[in-house]
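During the no-cost extension, the postdoctoral fellow (Dr. R.K.) reprocessed legacy sequence entries with the updated structure-token encoder. One reprocessed record is reproduced below for audit purposes.
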Amino acid sequence: MFVFLKLGGSLITDKTRPYTPRLETLDNLAIQISAALQENADLRLILGHGSGSFGHQAASQFGTRRGVSGPEAWRGFAEVWYQASALNRLVVEALRSAGLSAVTLAPVSAVTARDGQVAAWDLAPLKAALANGLLPVLHGDVVFDEARGGTILSTEDLFAHLARQLHPERILLAGLEAGVWEDFPARTRLIREMTPKIFAQQAPGLGRSSGADVTGGMQAKVTEMLALVEQVPSLEVLVFSGEEPGNARRALQGENPGTRLHC
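Re-encoded structure tokens follow.
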């Protein structure tokens, strides 16, 4: 099975406190990922993570996602890169401690965008990492943009492009929420399955994220992923709580402890 897993920024950092990682959570998730890979020799995985209270703070300050022009804005571009990379280092340290051979493939050095969308990406290093038993790690990052000068691509943006090129069977989005709530923030009605056809009826109650998030909250993520499953009908996406003990491991084993998005 070929799977993409994203560790959401709200899961691995405290998004209400700037530059605050949740190190115990990271360690626990790394152990679950390692266990799932050991249990299933056929599991191929690309791991991504959000920037949480690291990159989003600087990105909000400088408006980087909208575009980059002028010395101050480019200084902000570099600051967003620095903070996203600082969190990535903590993620990779947790993975390494769990016995995983993780290699970060930083988007800023490989991806070129055009008006906020992936325009070019040499996937040869990513494919080579997978072929040689390494764990490729991606993260939301600044990239150079032909129209905007620079911008930010979220992990979901990157996964969407990769899904169209590499055709994984599942994309797993681990966050704090148990899944997609029909009535966020009341959280009394969890949606177990969602398709593009019924999304319009449920969208108004989905809500946004808490804390700084320049790449959109739950509604934006669900919208993007449902558009993707329409383009890649064989794909399913799972939105689930990575906070719940053992959930990441179960999701990697093929279970559905959350909301399943499909055609």
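The radius of gyration is 17 Å. The chain has a mean pLDDT of 93. The remaining legacy entries will be reprocessed before the final report is submitted.
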